[in-house]
Every structure is written in structure tokens, then in C-alpha cells.
Specification:
The complex is a heterodimer of chains A (117) and B (528). Chain A is mostly helical. Chain A has 6 helices and 2 strands; from the N terminus they run αααααββα. Chain A has a two-stranded antiparallel sheet with strand order 1-2. In chain A, helix 4 crosses helix 6. Chain B has 528 residues and is an alpha/beta fold. In chain B, 29% of the residues lie in helices and 23% in strands. Chain B has 15 helices and 22 strands. In chain B, strands 5, 6, 12, 13, 14, 15, 16, 17, 20 and 21 form a 10-stranded antiparallel beta sheet that branches. In chain B, strands 1-7-4-3-11-22 form a 6-stranded parallel beta sheet, with helices on one face. Chain B is globular, with a radius of gyration of 24 Å. The two termini of chain B are 22 Å apart. The chains are: A mainly alpha (117), B alpha/beta (528). At the A-B interface, helix 3, helix 5 and strand 2 of A face strand 12, helix 11, helix 13 and strand 20 of B.
Chain lengths: 117, 528
């Protein structure tokens, strides 16, 4: 019997659980090259998030991430910051629906950006 | 004393002070509570100690409703009634359930939570749920677990207690009844009519048959209908045909406002940390199963104008939670009907994305072989919601032209779930998604793309029949008063969930028991 590991978008979307640190926006927006964060098996799912993001007329996720980080005054994008901004988004009702999955706008942008490349 | 009606001599004349019609949960509890307080109590029951298909057939409706589950299968017509196959799932109503809520049409009981709450402790003991109550704090302490709702502005934790094994009411309390010299339980006796004097507004006796045509009369100073959530309405409609609707039906309310608890799988929850949800899984303590569930709190219900809703979390594996497997079934069903389902694109994407889990399903079904080890890994929770249905006047039990073998008209069921109730569910889930996101508990996936299937073949029921002899402040709005006495009568009462004006999200048996104890105390006070 083959043993296949199968982590889904739904788990990866629970971003506070991601423990791999991301040291800057530059590395965040280039995570499509980061095998550890973005294994090939997830590319298709990230691309779906990107398509959903674009369909909702939200512009390019990269641009959103840059603006949002600039407004927050934070320089380092890491798991703690993602969690903090996601909590803020949920509190303020900034929630994005990706095929029924309710994500914070920031984390949706983050994933969409990975799927944009 | 237990008397088989079939052994009664033809022409026997029977007498009673209190005549209880039906020996299910309500009938058993009321008889037990009144025992020793009246000189001559009788209980009339259609069935006997064992399941009898011929007796059970008396529950058959005239025709099968296209969605609503057939009550012929969900109820049991025998001593102890449906407690002979219930899950023993008990929890009390919430205080808000009794309120008149402007956003829930025809809501509001003529009594408050405080009128019922004193009876819940004894009711819980009847139901085998013990005496420790339903406060989450008590069970957090007893089980050494924590709820996840302490810091929430939106959701609360509720507690369900199941007796294990379940309490079968007649098996548990029947001996106390039949050993009482002042109490007679008549089995195999089918009530066919009431003797009612319109001038005095009093019921004088009950007519019943042991075989079609083999009729007996029992005089009574007081009669209590305990036939069940549907049968109370059926029999009251039947009695009223020859009594100018004087038995609580001058405003055509009997049988209306029929409700159940629709049960649907409308969301999956993916937690960040599964270990903090142990409190929401099955725990065992003192011969009982304790299960915590999520529910909306009063503040959220009021703020968002929602119906009450129960949100139990049921752990599920990768295979179960696969969107692809669900979409596969939806596409397959739609194809067989020559239609494209709603959200067609999403289903196609799900199908492609989850092709491995679909292969797993086919392999399991066709070859009895598992392909992927991680298909069985617990990935998240199914949120299996029990909805409060808005009382709707057009949802009703009616009498048909077809009759059972005792000449009682069979029922027809008019039942739909309104679009506003469905919308309420989605709104409530948006509220929940925001709450769990805000508190970093995880993410919610709302399964709206499954909606078409969910409201048809996917819908389940609590089998909790309520509302058909509604309790109200006046006859214009209901069938019984706040003490469960039928409007227009002086000595006819109704017990059971048929008197509930609204149903909350709560399995009704605990509250049926509590209201039955309360009714027995009222009768003792008013009629001795």
C-alpha cells in the first residue's frame, strides 16, 4: 500500500500553524520558489486562491500585501505577524470566501500571491 | 395494576378520577407524579410491552411526505413510547427560547424559562442524566477539560448528557405504576373519542376499543392527552369533528405550527490545534456520556436576528472531509437527472483536486481495499447543525380521508423549511467563521456549494415533533393555556412537545419531562 502524504489547502490556510519563518516581504512574495513552504502538490490549490482573489476584483495580491505591510509599519513578515494581521481582519470583517473557506483578507492575499507565480 | 384491554368483558363499565391517554414519556411521568394523590388513576395505551407491527401500523400517514421523515418509523406505539429507541440526548432549553423574539415570527411562550427551570433537575433524574446539571463549568471541572468559548463574544458551550444505556421509561418506571393499587394501566386499548359536554365545557369520559367495534367507556373527572407530538393533534382534530371545534380549535390552530429540528452538515471546521477540543468529544462519567457542543450566545442571536442553533463538532478524517468525494456525488446525481448542479465549476474543480480521495472511495466500495494511509487521519470536524425551525402556520398535521382500522383518520403532513430559515443558517455560519478566525482557533469552510443536495436528500431530522397544540396566552394564538389546559374546556389537558410554541435547538425529552412534572403539580393543586 503506498503511503502518501496529503496536506491540503485547508490546513495550509490555517497560517498561524505555519512555523517556517518568513523574514521579509521579498521572501514572502517569492515563496513560490520556496520548496519548503510551497511544495509542488499545493501549487494548483494556491493558483485557485489567486484566481478567486482576482475574480473578486481585489487587484494583485502582491500589491495588497505591500500596502498592508507598509500601513502596519512592520518590516518582517513572519508567522506571528500573519496571525496578528489575520486576527485583525477577522475582527474587522475583512473576510474572503474561497470556495466556502473563510480566510482573512491578509492570509488570502498571502496564499493568492503564492499562486500568482 | 396492568390490565390487558383484550381481557375486558364486553359491556364493562370503567371509572377513573384521572384518565391519562398514552403511556410514553409524558404519560409515564404524569402517572408517576400523580400516583398516590388520586384514588383512581388510569392510563390508556394502544400498544403493549413489545413492538407489535399491527399496532405500529396505526401511525402510518396517509401518504409519504417527499422530504419529511415518516413518523411511522420515528415513533414507537407501545408502553414507554419512543423512549424505547431514543438516544437519550438531553439538555435544557435556553432562556431566550421562551422569549418573544421580534425576528422569529410567532415565537414566545406564555411562560418564562424560570417557570420550567425548577423542574429540570428532577426531569434530568427521570432521564438518567443525574443531578449535576448542565452548566459547562461543572463538567469542565469534573472532566478536567476546558471549553473554547470563555473569551468569545459570539459563541457559548452547551452540554448534552446521555444516559448509557438509555432510559426506557416504562421499563424504568412501569413497575411503580402497576404495583400501585390506585392506578390501572390498560394496554391494547385504542382511544376513539371523548365524551364532551359543551354546556359545562367538561370532558366526562373516554371511549376506547380493544378491537375494531369492541368499544368501552371509562368515565373521568380529568383527561390528559399524552399521545405524542403528532398524535395529540391528530386525535384532537378527530375529536373536534363532532364537537364543533370546541376543544381548543375555534381559531383553527390544532395541528398547525408543526416543527422538527432539521439537521444538516453545512460546514467543516479545520482547527489550528485539535488537542483543545477534547471537551467537545464524547466523555464518560458515572454511566453517562457527556458531550459539549457549540451554540450561538444570546448576544449574537439578538445582534444578528438569528434563530437558535446547535453546533456539535464531530471529528472526521481526510476521506470524509474531501470536497471532491461530495462533489463527485453531486455531479453524478445531477448527471443522472440530466441537469447541471448549482456551483458546477466548483464541483468540477473539487473533483479534479481530490481525485485521490475519489479513487479511495471507489477502491473501498468496489475492491474493499484502502489506498491511502492518510485518508483516515483526522483532519477536522464536521459541524452537524441542529436548527431551530421558525413556527410556520402552514406547516401542519391534517386529517386525510383515509382511516386506520379503528376509523381514526390518518394524517397528512404539510412541512417545508422556509427560505428565511435556510438563510439564517448561512448567516449564523458567517458569524461563527468570524469568531473562530478572530480568536485564531481555526478556519471554517461553509459548504454552500452543497446546498441543493443538502436541503433535499442531505437533510436529516431530530424526529422531534413539536408545536401542533401550541401553548399560548389566548385561544386566538394557540390550543392550550400556560398550564396546558385546552382552551374551551375545564378538565382537558395536553402534555408533551406538541405544546411547545418554539423548539430551540434542543432535543425535547428533558423539557417534555419537566413540563409533565409541572403539569402534574398544577393538577394536584387545582383538582384535588
Amino acid at each position: 500500500m503506498p503511503t502518501l502524504s496529503r496536506r491540503k489547502l485547508l490546513i495550509s490556510a490555517a497560517l498561524p500553524a505555519i512555523t517556517v519563518p518568513i523574514t521579509s516581504l521579498a521572501s514572502a512574495v517569492s515563496t513560490s520558489q520556496n520548496k519548503e513552504l510551497n511544495p509542488t502538490s499545493r501549487n494548483e490549490e494556491f493558483a485557485q486562491v489567486y484566481q478567486s482573489w482576482v475574480k473578486q476584483d481585489l487587484g494583485e495580491p502582491k500589491q495588497y500585501l505591500e500596502t498592508r505591510l507598509s500601513l502596519s509599519g512592520e518590516k518582517n513578515l513572519d508567522a506571528t505577524l500573519i496571525q496578528k494581521l489575520s486576527k485583525e481582519d477577522f475582527k474587522n470583517g475583512l473576510i474572503i470566501d474561497i470556495h466556502g473557506l473563510k480566510l482573512s483578507k491578509f492570509e488570502a492575499a498571502y496564499i493568492a500571491n503564492m499562486g500568482a507565480v | 395494576m396492568l390490565i390487558d384491554g383484550k381481557s375486558l368483558e364486553k359491556g364493562s363499565r370503567l371509572e377513573s378520577d384521572v384518565c391519562i391517554l398514552g403511556c410514553g414519556v409524558a404519560g409515564t411521568v404524569i402517572a408517576n407524579e400523580l400516583k398516590g394523590k388520586f384514588n383512581n388513576i388510569c392510563v390508556i395505551e394502544s400498544g403493549n410491552e413489545n413492538f407489535d407491527p399491527e399496532v405500529q401500523a396505526l401511525y402510518e400517514p396517509s401518504s409519504q411526505h417527499k422530504t419529511f421523515f415518516n413518523p411511522h418509523y420515528s415513533r414507537l406505539r407501545m408502553l414507554g413510547g419512543s423512549s424505547n429507541h431514543w438516544e437519550n440526548n438531553t439538555s435544557p432549553f435556553d432562556a431566550i427560547d421562551f422569549e418573544k423574539r421580534d425576528w422569529v415570527k410567532d415565537s414566545g411562550w406564555p411562560i418564562q424559562y424560570a417557570d420550567i427551570s425548577p423542574y429540570y433537575k428532577k426531569a434530568a433524574e427521570y432521564c438518567g442524566a443525574g443531578s449535576q446539571g448542565y452548566a459547562p463549568q461543572t463538567w469542565e471541572k469534573n472532566l478536567g477539560e476546558q471549553s473554547i468559548t470563555h473569551d468569545s463574544q459570539t459563541i457559548d458551550t452547551g452540554i448534552s448528557i446521555f444516559s448509557s444505556p438509555p432510559v426506557r421509561f416504562f421499563a424504568s418506571y412501569g413497575d411503580a405504576l402497576i404495583n400501585d393499587t390506585a392506578l390501572k394501566v390498560y394496554k391494547n386499548c385504542n382511544v376513539v373519542d371523548l365524551a364532551f359536554d359543551e354546556a359545562s365545557e367538561e370532558v366526562n369520559g373516554v371511549l376506547f376499543e380493544t378491537q375494531p367495534g369492541n368499544r368501552f367507556y371509562i368515565s373521568a373527572k380529568l383527561v390528559i392527552l399524552c399521545f405524542g407530538g403528532i398524535e395529540n393533534a391528530r386525535m384532537l382534530l378527530h375529536f373536534n369533528k363532532s364537537k364543533n371545534n370546541r376543544l381548543g380549535n375555534t381559531h383553527d390552530n390544532v395541528g398547525r405550527y408543526f416543527m422538527d429540528h432539521p439537521v444538516v452538515e453545512a460546514a467543516h471546521f479545520f482547527p489550528n490545534d485539535q488537542s483543545i477540543y477534547k471537551f467537545y468529544q464524547d466523555s464518560h462519567a458515572d454511566g453517562k456520556n457527556i458531550v459539549a457542543y457549540l451554540k450561538l450566545n444570546d448576544q449574537a442571536i439578538r445582534k444578528h436576528g438569528l434563530n437558535n442553533l446547535r453546533l456539535p463538532l464531530i471529528p472526521k478524517d481526510n476521506f470524509y472531509l474531501s470536497d471532491g468525494v461530495s462533489s463527485f456525488h453531486i455531479l453524478k446525481n445531477a448527471a443522472s437527472e440530466g441537469e447541471a448542479p448549482d456551483h458546477f465549476g466548483t464541483h468540477v474543480v473539487n473533483f479534479i483536486k481530490d481525485i485521490d480521495m475519489i479513487a479511495e472511495g471507489i477502491s473501498r466500495q468496489k475492491f474493499k481495499t484502502k489506498l491511502f494511509d492518510d485518508a483516515e487521519e483526522i483532519e477536522g470536524f464536521m459541524v452537524y447543525m441542529m436548527m431551530e425551525q421558525t413556527p410556520h402556520r402552514d406547516n401542519r398535521i391534517k386529517l386525510s380521508a383515509n382511516k386506520d382500522r379503528f376509523g381514526i383518520p390518518k394524517i397528512e403532513i404539510d412541512w417545508t423549511l422556509t427560505d428565511s430559515d435556510k438563510e439564517n443558517l448561512w448567516k449564523a455560519l458567517e458569524v461563527l467563521a468570524q469568531d473562530v478566525g478572530e480568536r485564531s482557533l481555526g478556519r471554517l469552510k461553509i459548504l454552500k456549494e452543497r446546498e441543493q443536495r443538502m436541503w433535499r436528500e442531505g437533510i436529516g431530522f431530530g424526529h422531534h415533533h413539536m408545536g401542533t397544540t401550541k401553548m399560548a396566552a389566548n385561544e386566538k394564538e394557540g390550543v392550550v393555556d400556560k398550564n396546558q389546559k385546552v382552551f374551551g374546556t375545564k378538565n382537558l389537558y395536553v402534555a408533551g412537545s406538541s405544546v411547545f410554541p418554539t423548539g430551540g435547538h434542543v432535543p425535547p425529552t428533558l423539557t417534555i419531562t419537566a413540563t409533565s412534572i409541572r403539569l402534574a403539580q398544577h393538577i394536584e393543586k387545582e383538582h384535588i
